[in-house]
Structures are given as C-alpha cells and as structure tokens.
Amino acid sequence: GQSLEQPSEVTAVEGAIVQINCTYQTSGFYGLSWYQQHDGGAPTFLSYNALDGLEETGRFSSFLSRSDSYGYLLLQELQMKDSASYFCAANTDKLIFGTGTRLQVFP
Amino acid sequence: GAVVSQHPSWVICKSGTSVKIECRSLDFQATTMFWYRQFPKQSLMLMATSNEGSKATYEQGVEKDKFLINHASLTLSTLTVTSAHPEDSSFYICSGGGSTDTQYFGPGTRLTVL
After folding, report:
1. Residue-level pLDDT at A24
2. Sequence-ordered list of residues with C-beta below 8 angstroms from that of A68, at least 6 positions apart, any chain
3. Interface probe, candidates B5, B35, B44, B95, chain A, greatest A C-beta count within 10 A
C-alpha cells in the first residue's frame, strides 16, 4: 500500500525552529509536497520537492531524500499564526496525503 | 494562484436524504478534479478522481453507488452523497489543477447528517 508517516504533534515557542519529518512508501512517486491547514480551512500549498535537496521559500524550507524515502519541512522564526496542521503529500498520478502533524506555537 | 470554489460551504441534512456538493474551477479548466474526505483531526483521504466526460475512478473502499461523481464540464464536478447517514458526516474537499504538484483546493464543505 501507499503510506506517509508524520509525527502526530509538535510544540514550539515563538521564534524557534521546528522540523516536521515525513517518511513515505509509495509507488509512482515523482515528488513530495507540503501543505498547511488551519482548523476548518482548506489545505494551502507550501512547497514542492521534485529533486533531492533543500528548497527554501521564505521562512519555510523543505527537504527530500529519495534514497531514504524521507523528507522534512523546516519552519523558522515561528509565529503564532503558524499553529496549524501540516501534511506531506506524495505526488503520483494523484496526491496521497500523510498522516499530518499538528503544530502548536506558544508565546 | 488559481481559484476553486465549493458550494455549499456547509450543509445539515436528515439521514436518508441525498446531498449534492459542487466544485468549480473559476479561472482555469480542469479535465481532472479530486475529491477528498477528512474526518476531525485526521488526514485528507482521497475518495475519487473525477474525469471530465468519463467515469470517475474511485479509491479502494469507496462505494461508487453511494458517492456519485459527475464531471460534465471542464469547470464543474459534483459529488452527490446518496442516502446519507450520520457516519457520512465529514469535511469534503475538492481540488483541481494541471498536475498534482499544482493542485488548488476548494474551501471545503462540511456535511452534518442528523
């Protein structure tokens, strides 16, 4: 089957750095995406890695290692508004979402 | 980015009734749209792939006769939950886009079945 595993919850304080890991087991994989979802809202796209390595987009960076079937999302200079759920998603002929990580940022 | 709308944003219905949810791509044409279901504090589970002009492709375990999908135009896909029951209460989200790395999500429809 296809699966993407993430830690269920992460907590941090404002200004800190947090890393959310994602390990996957999928077929037809050609990239890894990350989405943010606030309670009651729709997922919003954060980043996409088609190649191994680090992609940086402002405070957020995402990493992919195909050989390890592993990726992570790095959030820097955390703000209260970053409190949300974060999902990795495998890009195949469809998007397969990970189990999700709930991030709580405290003042 | 592109815009996807859903209607209604929320709906409450009685058990046994059918509910139709619309998903529209407002500024792009979508030959393929995806329908997801999300239970509270859980991930998005892909239900089906909606293909314009042809039958939808359902994921394993999703009843095609219960969740009817119609994709009659390049900008509209509909999901009808037939004979809804309380266990169908969930957040239903659609998405569309040129490829999976550029998917645009609708705002979601919260269905509550009494």
Report:
1. 97
2. none
3. B44
Grouping H, G, I as helix, E, B as strand and the rest as coil, residue A57 is strand
Distance CA A63, CA A57 (A): 12
Exposed / middle / buried, residue B113 (Cβ in 10 Å: 0-12, 13-18, 19+): buried
Q: Which whole-number Å values give the CA distances from B21 to A14, A31, B73, B82, B94, in the listed order?
A: 39, 30, 15, 11, 10
**Nearest CB to B101: which of A31, A43, A99?**
A31
Q: Spell out the per-residue pLDDT of chain A, length 107, in tens.
A: 789 999 999 999 999 999 999 999 999 999 999 999 999 899 999 999 999 999 998 999 999 999 999 999 999 999 999 999 999 999 998 899 999 999 999 99
Cβ proximity of A72 and A65 under 8 Å: no
Q: What is the mean pLDDT of residues B3-29?
A: 95
Cβ–Cβ under 8 Å, residues B12 and B114? yes
CB within 8 Å: A42 and B43: no
As a whole number of angstroms, the distance between CA B22 and CA A104 comes to 33
Distance CA A26, CA A44 (A): 22
CA distance A76 to chain B (A): 23
Q: How far apart, in whole angstroms, are the C-alpha atoms of residue B96 and residue B89?
A: 23
> Per-residue pLDDT tens for B90-101?
999 999 986 666
